[in-house]
Specification:
- The structure is a single chain.
- This protein has 166 residues and is α+β, with helices and mostly antiparallel strands.
- It has one domain.
- It contains 4 helices and 7 strands; from the N terminus they run E-H-E-E-E-E-H-E-E-H-H.
- The strands form 2 sheets. The chain has a 5-stranded mixed β-sheet.
- The longest helix is centred in the last third of the chain and has 25 residues.
- It is elongated.
- About 7% of the residues have low confidence.
- The structure holds zinc ion.
Length: 166
């Protein structure tokens, strides 16, 4: 089951190879910093191809649901990942630099031993929202408790005010 997820990226692209499967989210170490829990798995497809200009590319498709922390109520937030990206393979640092100047392409350095797991993790981290939040009015548990706490506190405040006047 543990198929090695290492590819020779240029060969992979030129031979139009395809690698697809499922990976437990717990296997992505860097991703854990962004997640509330590491349960679940993701589905991925990595496809090698040559683009319209004859350049080698990797197409990366990732689907999953991950648990992020809402930055407003600090509760769990389910975030759907549906990533489709095309990465141009640069053959060396110089090419990478010149290709990177084109803002319409994403470019990575071709490697004879490219770790697909790291590649997928990079793409997920790039795609995560900087400040995840529930939809408007969607912050339920935390927001509700705050409201309750304020209401419970107010009778005491009223009592204190009463004591002062007498
Ligand atoms: Zn929220």
């Amino acid at each position: 089951m543990a198929v090695p997820l290492v590819i020779d990226s240029l060969d992979f692209a030129c031979n139009a190879e395809v690698r697809r499967g499922k990976i437990a989210i717990a296997r992505f170490q860097r991703l854990q910093d962004y997640l509330v829990n590491d349960s679940g798995e993701l589905g991925y497809t990595v496809t090698g191809a040559v683009d319209a200009n004859g350049r080698p590319v990797l197409r990366v498709d990732i689907q999953s649901v991950v648990s992020l922390r809402c930055q407003r109520c600090l509760e769990e937030l389910e975030h759907v990942l549906d990533i489709h990206t095309e990465l141009l393979l640069a053959q060396n640092e110089q090419e990478l630099k010149s290709l990177d100047e084109d803002e319409f392409v994403d470019c990575i350095l071709a490697q004879p031993e490219m770790d697909v797991l790291l590649l997928i993790e990079d793409e997920i981290i790039l795609a995560l929202p900087v400040s995840p939040r529930h939809e408007q009015d969607g912050c339920m548990p935390g927001g509700r408790e705050d409201g309750k706490a304020i209401r419970e506190a107010s009778p005491f405040a009223a009592l204190a005010a009463l004591k002062k006047t007498h």
